[in-house]
Structure formats: structure tokens, C-alpha cells
Design a protein that fits this description.
GO molecular function, one term: oxidoreductase activity
Structural class: alpha/beta
EC number: 1.1.1.-
Largest sheet: 7 strands, parallel
Pfam family, one: adh_short_C2
CATH architecture: 3-Layer(aba) Sandwich
Strand order of the largest sheet: 3-2-1-4-5-6-7
CATH class: Alpha Beta
Organism: Novosphingobium soli
Radius of gyration: 17 Å
CATH topology: Rossmann fold
Order of helices and strands: EHEHEHEHHEHEHHHE
Shape: globular
Strand content: 15-25%
Family: Belongs to the short-chain dehydrogenases/reductases (SDR) family.
Distance between the termini: 27 Å
């Protein structure tokens, strides 16, 4: 199915690398305008230049409400209403729960859960002010993880924040259901990225891959079709859902 985002603007938080950068490319390829938000402005600016006129790079620290508001101000000044919000910014602090410093835990919590909340909330406020209730064109997609329903060692806070995101998505969907804003959550499996590349290249990382049912990681663009669908008019009647895309890794 061909998905068109022509006439729509989407803000992607965490767009400087990995699947966030891939999302931005996919949105632009589908005809949409895309706002690239991240702290690493040099990277998003380079990506915006690669994509061309349908992309705008903005500074965005999702843990700072003022930064979130400024990012939406810049997006609206350049493109007008932001119809889609992709809350993708996230970090992890590895280590056993008895060893990880409180500062590291707080950063994971603030980035993954609070940051996604702030981005989604600001986007919803702008959509409501722009008349989303009448148009029904608001789309929020939270990026979770299969760790939300897995048990492991070394990522307790990360997994807890991703489980929280899944429930946050349902809560916000219920709250905004009459405001023309759909909220859904994507839970990807293991995807190669610059964050985990060293691990999966290690002996233990290769053993982890060998232990997966299909003995492979997800392709970097595996989430793109579902993301584009959830951002489009085609998903008008889909809200409050959680979609796991992991090539069967969590089975």
C-alpha cells in the first residue's frame, strides 16, 4: 500500500541518528515535510541538507520544556501546523540495577518517559489550538521497545520507561480521543545502530543474535511502513494501540 504524507508536517524527536534519522528520510520520501529535532544540531542540519527543502533542523532537548516549546515554534514558523509527532528520543544506561548510579537512572527516566510526555503534550496542545477536533488529523507515535514486556539483566530502568510509554500511549489516546488526535506506540525489536553496534560485534552480542529465532537483527527500515501508516489519513480509526515489530524476537 502506497502511503502519502503530502501536505502533512511531522516533527521527529531524536532525529540525529539511527531509526530517527531513518524515519525522517521515510517521511520526506512519502511526500511529507519533516522537522528534525535533536540536541546534536550539526547532525540534523546535515540530514536536512541531504533531504532538501522538505526538511528543517531544530534544536531540541526533550528533557527541557522550554526547548520543546521553542522547537514547535520554529516548526510552525517554517511549515505551519505540525500534524504528526514522533517521540523517538531515548537513551539507556547499562548495568545491574544494584550498580547503576542514581544520576544515570534519572537521565534515562527524564529522556525516555518524561521527554516523550513533554513532546507529545506540546504537539497535542498545538494541534488542538489549530482545530484538530474538527479535522481529525492529529497523529502521535511513541517509540517504545520489546523490552517493555521482556525480563533481562542490565536494562531495568530502560525497560521500565518503555513499559511506561506503552501505557502512556493508551492514557493519552483516551484523553485526546475527542480532540482529533490519535496516539499509538511502536515497539521495535533489536535494530543495529551506533548505540549498540559495539555490543552486537562482541562475542556476547553475536551470541545474543544467534539465540534469536531467526538469528538476525531487524533491518534498519523495518518500522518505516507502520510508522508512515500511523502518521497518515489511512490510520484515522486507529488509536490507543501498541504494535510490536520485532521479526519474532520476543516470541
Amino acid at each position: 500500500m502506497q502511503i502519502s504524507l503530502k501536505g502533512r508536517t511531522t516533527l521527529v524527536a531524536g532525529a540525529s541518528s539511527g531509526i530517527g534519522a531513518g524515519f525522517a528520510r521515510a517521511i520526506a520520501a512519502a511526500g511529507g515535510q519533516v522537522v528534525l529535532g535533536a540536541r546534536r544540531r550539526d547532525r540534523t542540519q546535515a540530514l536536512a541538507e541531504e533531504i532538501g527543502g522538505r526538511a528543517l533542523a531544530v534544536a531540541l532537548d526533550v528533557t527541557d520544556e522550554g526547548s520543546v516549546m521553542a522547537a514547535f515554534d520554529a516548526a510552525e514558523a517554517h511549515f505551519g501546523t505540525v500534524h504528526g509527532i514522533v517521540a523517538n528520543a531515548g537513551i539507556g544506561t547499562g548495568g545491574r540495577s544494584t550498580d547503576v548510579a542514581a544520576q544515570g537512572l534519572a537521565l534515562v527516566l527524564d529522556t525516555n518517559l518524561l521527554g516523550s510526555y513533554l513532546v507529545a503534550r506540546e504537539g497535542a496542545r498545538r494541534l488542538m489550538a489549530a482545530g484538530s477536533r474538527e479535522r481529525g488529523d492529529g497523529r502521535v507515535v511513541l517509540i517504545g521497545s520489546i523490552t517493555a514486556h521482556q525480563n533481562g539483566t542490565g536494562d531495568a530502568m530502560y525497560a521500565a520507561t518503555k513499559a511506561g510509554l506503552a501505557h502512556l500511549g493508551r492514557q493519552l489516546a483516551r484523553e485526546w480521543i475527542r480532540q482529533g488526535i490519535n496516539v499509538n506506540t511502536l515497539q521495535p525489536g533489536w535494530i543495529p545502530s551506533e548505540i549498540n553496534a559495539a555490543w552486537f560485534a562482541s562475542e556476547r552480542g553475536r551470541a545474543d543474535i544467534a539465540g534469536l529465532h531467526r538469528r538476525r537483527l531487524l533491518d534498519a527500515d523495518a518500522l518505516d511502513p507502520m510508522l508512515l501508516y500511523l502518521l497518515s489519513d489511512a490510520s484515522a480509526q486507529v488509536t490507543g494501540a501498541t504494535f510490536t515489530i520485532d521479526d519474532g524476537q520476543s516470541l
